[in-house]
Every structure is written in C-alpha cells, then in structure tokens.
Amino acid sequence: QVQLVESGGGLVQAGASLRLSCAASGRPFSSRTMGWFRRAPGKEREFVAAITWSAGTTYYSDSVKGRFTISRDNAKNTMYLQMNSLKPEDTAVYYCAAKRPGGTYSRATDFESWGQGTQVTVSS
Fold first, then answer.
1. Ordered mean pLDDT values, 10 residues apiece, the chain (124 residues)
2. Of 56, 55, 63, 48, which Cα lies nearest the Cα of 106?
3. Is the dihedral of CA 60, 33, 114, 7 positive or negative?
C-alpha cells in the first residue's frame, strides 16, 4: 500500500556524483527495510543497497561499495542514495523498494512495493 517515487537521476560524466531520492506516501515506510535496485540495458534487475528501518544497518553490493551511500529520513518519509565516483557501468534505471518481513535484503522478490524508476546515465 506504500507508494514510492524516485527522483534525482540524470546525465553526468564519469567521476561525477548524483543523489537519488525516494519519497514514500505510505505510513509503513518508517518501519520497513528499504532498498535500491537497478536495471542496466540488456540486464536483469540487480541489488544496489539496502537500509533497515532504524538506519542502524546498511548493505551494499560489491560493485558500489565505497562509492554509494544509502540513508533515510523517516520524519520526511524519504530514502536517499548518494552516488559518488560514478562509472559508465552505473548507467541504469534505479528503483527504490520497500521490503516485506523476512527473506533477504538483496533479493528483489522479497521487496513488495516499488517506485517507477529514475534514469541514471554516466558518460565516459
């Protein structure tokens, strides 16, 4: 029942930074683990990062670890993904999602609510 809307994508050069936002309208946002996934052209959706409801624990894929930072502001019903040192291989549509109880933080099928996605394009 939670509705998610991503924003902040765009076209940047390699090495630049972007900050994605995910605005939630549903009340369960503050008590849900949230995550970011991405789908590159010709590839399946892959896990990027996740954060617990209290922001006490975060998870990152190996490909973005050290470059991306996930955070959330429950008072504003918003989750963020700070992306630094962007590479052309980061080019993808980025989706935010809310996780259901149980399962794994890195499996897309364990997330039950999804945004529409925001395009990130990184040029060389």
1. 91 98 77 91 95 86 97 90 98 94 88 94 96
2. 48
3. negative
